[in-house]
Amino acid sequence: MPLYVLKKEHEFDEIILERRLNIIVFTVCWSLGSKMIFPTIFNLSSNQNLIHINFYRIDLDENNLELIQRLNIVRLFSFIKENLLFC
Fold first, then answer.
1. Which CATH class name applies to 3-86?
2. Where are the domains of the chain?
3. β-strands 79-81, 84-86 pairing
4. How far apart are CA 38 and CA 44, in angstroms?
5. Of 23, 80, 16, nearest to 52 (Cα)?
6. Could you tell me which residues come within 8 angstroms of residue 53 by beta carbon, excluding any fewer than 6 positions away?
7. Which residues have CB under 8 Å from 54's CB, separation 6+?
8. Would you give the distance in Å from CA 77 to the centre of its chain?
9. Contact indicator for 87, 75 with CB cutoff of 8 Å
């Protein structure tokens, strides 16, 4: 599966309710951690053995303040399953 970029909050709302495994990576342009993890996530999203997993990226620098506040994102590496946040 390709790596999808989510830009709108309603896109996030739609995928979070799916019963599939969704990996969502929150990134910011200034973070060294974001820059280091992104190539790995990109490679995983291209792996044919992982086609049952959807990979998404949300750039927190791009109009996602409402989503950050709603999900109470305090770390870039946050895990969300069925609308529950695990840090």
1. alpha beta
2. 3-86
3. antiparallel
4. 10
5. 23
6. 1, 20, 21, 22, 23, 44
7. 1, 4, 15, 18, 20, 21, 22, 23
8. 9
9. yes
What pLDDT shows up at residue 81? 61
The structure tokens 């929150």 sit at 26
Residue 18, helix vs strand vs coil: coil
Neighbours of 55 (CB within 10 A): 20
The overall average pLDDT reported for the chain is 79
> pTM for the whole thing?
0.74
All residue ranges of the chain with pLDDT < 70 are 1, 63-64, 74-87
Residue the block writes with tokens 């990979």: 55
Using CA atoms, how far apart are residues 47 and 53, in angstroms rounded to an integer?
Answer: 10
